[in-house]
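Reading a protein record of the kind used here takes only a little practice. The record below shows the convention in full:
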Amino acid sequence: MRLGIDIGGTKTEAVAMAGGEILHRFTVPTGHGAEAVVRSVMDAAEKVRASCGQPFDAFASIGAGIPGHVDHHTGTVSHAVNLGFEELDLGALLAARMGAVVHIDNDVNAAALGAHRWVGIATGQSTDLLAYLNLGTGLAAGLVRDGTIWRGSNGVAGEIGHIPVRPNGVLCACGQRGCLETLASGSAVARTWPVSLPAHALLSAAGRDPAAARALDDLYEGAAAAVRILALTTGVRTVVVGGGLTALGTPLLTGIRRSLDKTASESRFIASLELPRHVQLLPRSFPAAAVGAALIGSTRIPAAADLPLAASG
């Protein structure tokens, strides 16, 4: 069995897996502040451990995905502003409480591993190179190559949200202007359409309000640009889109594909990549980050043959 934990800004979810199948899932609210976050993790993990009927040190691997900057070698997390702490030696703290090694990674990297597994379930085939595009509060990507996270030489592979695409555009939190994140992210939508549930409100208003329609087009175009950047810089064939904005469902995928088609109609080279058919939307019901966290400590990510359809949870 493997145990994975997804630490989010509002909820923490733990899953237990065996043979590629999700056996148990449990979710609790995420506390604010270092100690509260650790309590949330232990609460969710303990519920799942009890359901499995075995101690923590009996799990083949235990992992956790968390937002912020993560040193995956040491398990130290820093700049987790939304969780209410600046630095936390999370790996060591959880290991001490569980009595077992706990692997810590960035939540987008964990979700990328989970997306890799989901593609295996959905297609019955494993893929050697996959990109996971997270459209959440910000925009970032995780890359999986031959079943393992591809971090690059400096650990920032996939941080494409801070690639400027509109030099005279909106000022980004990173200090540059017109970054992808200022177009295609939850924060971009909230800035453009500052209401409750802004993404859904924007989608609803787009048919009658030209400003809403332009903002929605920015979202689609920004996400499509991210897909092109991933395809052109890594040679990836499969891009799985996840994150909070996938709550928009089919219209999001349709809009991204439509924007990709428009660019392809103007460029034979881009058209030859057939990008629209390689973009997929991760189902909201699939706990990608928790599943990926369970696999972080694995020496081998299960192949498609090891991933029964019953695991779709």
